[in-house]
Write a structure and sequence with these properties.
about 90 residues
Amino acid sequence: MKKIAPSEQVIEDIVEATLGEHASAREKHVLRETLHGLVRLAKVEQVADIKANVRRLAGALETQSARRRAKAILMAQRLPGLLEQAQQAFEFKH
């Protein structure tokens, strides 16, 4: 027995509830295919939203990483001066 996807079952329920038993096969087919198209569109939109959220998150992580790198570079540029000051203070005390 073939397993029916939940969306398939919902589509069949909507077709039956909307058109009833006395609708022609063509009417049922058109409505069924329209609903399938709507489900596919919703899936595409969901995937697009997920990808946009991932890009946004990755961009935020890149921004944080760039900030950390910039801070490290600034610290590295200041380090020789700090070491020199510390050395002078050490020599002056002794």
